[in-house]
Amino acid sequence: MSKLVECVPNFSEGRRPEVVRAIVAAGEKCGVKILDWTMDGDHNRSVVTFAGEPEAVLEAALAMIREAAARINMEEHRGAHPRIGAADVVPFIPIGGVTMAECVALARRLGERVARELEIPVYLYEEAATRPERRNLADVRRGEYEGLKEEISRPERRPDFGPARMHPTAGAVVIGARKPLIAFNVNLGTDNMAVARAIARALRAKDGGLTFVKALGVELKDRHQVQVSMNLVDYERTPIYRALELVRLEAARYGVPVVGTEIVGLVPLDALLGSLEYYLQSESFSRDQVLEVKLNA
Amino acid sequence: MSKLVECVPNFSEGRRPEVVRAIVAAGEKCGVKILDWTMDGDHNRSVVTFAGEPEAVLEAALAMIREAAARINMEEHRGAHPRIGAADVVPFIPIGGVTMAECVALARRLGERVARELEIPVYLYEEAATRPERRNLADVRRGEYEGLKEEISRPERRPDFGPARMHPTAGAVVIGARKPLIAFNVNLGTDNMAVARAIARALRAKDGGLTFVKALGVELKDRHQVQVSMNLVDYERTPIYRALELVRLEAARYGVPVVGTEIVGLVPLDALLGSLEYYLQSESFSRDQVLEVKLNA
């Protein structure tokens, strides 16, 4: 099996499609496969998903950061989503034949080159973080572009690579490595937001729930329903089925049924097979038994 | 998506690995991908699974039948499994970008060439059958090699292609087209064979169960358990989850739990995703959301 790394960079541009297209094109030239890209006008932000061999992914990420830096001016950027730079967050994700350690090394090499070649300050986060307080993206991004500009020269906010001052237009960038994230939403047969919030609290790690679950209650106005919206940040240790069945268990306390679920975006095959094996009570199942996997082997 | 046909020929040789290897090699030369091959000494039979573009699969099947005919003598063949020829059964299965009608056409073209080039009588079965009474493989194979040899000249047993006499060493061959078959076993927390048999009857089509399920009770002596062993012959219309949950429902009547299940051999991704969508109550899920599917697209 060849080595495969996924990269999901977020850019601070969600209103000018020609800019996002230019960023995507810059990456695509480096021999990676663009899997998806989306824009959000309110957030004024775009998310690109691509994958390829580690070296190609490194070059593509660098090319996209360079393109974003040339076309986005953070001094003029407004949007609903927290951000500190034109290329805001760039995570590497091990997908196949690659360890997390290799993705961490890739993140550090990219950080070093972004600092040297583009003179943009770089923060390392999640698995690539150099200090525990930088693991969490929200902590790195505290104060956003405007606030970090004031604080960047303070010792505790100095970047891991590059100058201790913001790039005049591109700001700063957060680079790191993490596991695949699954966006999983469970819709409930009630319009009572208190129920959705209570279940979200019961599910999420920080309030005593499952270790690798982030959860929020969300209102689905058109449907007159509420939703428990989750991010599963380590599906190997907190699988989809466990999150769903725990939502069901908590909802039963209020006499509320699960009416449906959705997985948003891409999901690794192993995450799906793992949950199916639970429901089927499989004693022995290997992904090599999937006809299409065997065909592509 | 390119056109993809699977072929799962069965050969009357399960004791001489060099013969099976030669048969496999003859097919492999035609540019198909060998996915699996297994031998069974008691049955004196082997099963090969391969896939590829339709024309390559046709040539590979022909080459394997030719090789089997040259190396297997049905006059000397003994084994526990019913059979009528050296190459005994050759089904084509639509896997991707191919209709059942195309697989039926492929089966007929192969039948015509086997008859003409190898002088082996050919029967068409399942979706490729020319008469309703030949759809079912067991009916075509009635009397086995020895019995068919006597009856082949009778009008009702005349082959679809080729001479109305057995090939002196290779016998006859059954060629056809069918949907993918899933071998799915459910293990029960009891050693009571009466329970396994009763559940198998409740599940299988011919006794009032699910239309596309064949089921048998099987004893698992080493485990002191029994099993409902099923073939799901149309997973789109009778999916895995429905068979499993119906076994569970029937077993509950006897206070017997499902202790585990197994899928034997290869299974199409869509069959797995379809059942997972049931358990997750998915409102919208597309196979394009599977990262690996998207990557290979």
UniProtKB/TrEMBL annotation, chains A, B:
GO cellular component, as recorded: cytoplasm
Main location: cytoplasm
EC number(s) recorded for this UniProt protein: 2.1.2.5
Biochemical pathway: Amino-acid degradation; L-histidine degradation into L-glutamate; L-glutamate from N-formimidoyl-L-glutamate (transferase route): step 1/1
UniProt GO MF annotations: folic acid binding; glutamate formimidoyltransferase activity
Span of domain Formiminotransferase N-terminal subdomain: 3-179
Residue stretches making up the Formiminotransferase C-terminal subdomain domain: 180-294
One of the protein's GO biological processes: L-histidine catabolic process to glutamate and formate
Keyword presence, Transmembrane: no
UniProt keyword terms in alphabetical order: Cytoplasm, Folate-binding, Histidine metabolism, Transferase
Intracellular or extracellular location(s): Cytoplasm
InterPro entries: Formiminotransferase_C (IPR013802), Formiminotransferase_C_sf (IPR037070), Formiminotransferase_cat (IPR004227), Formiminotransferase_N (IPR012886), Formiminotransferase_N_sf (IPR037064), FormiminoTrfase_cat_dom_sf (IPR022384), FTCD (IPR051623)
The protein's name in its UniProt record: glutamate formimidoyltransferase
Taxonomic path: Bacteria, Bacillati, Bacillota, Clostridia, Eubacteriales
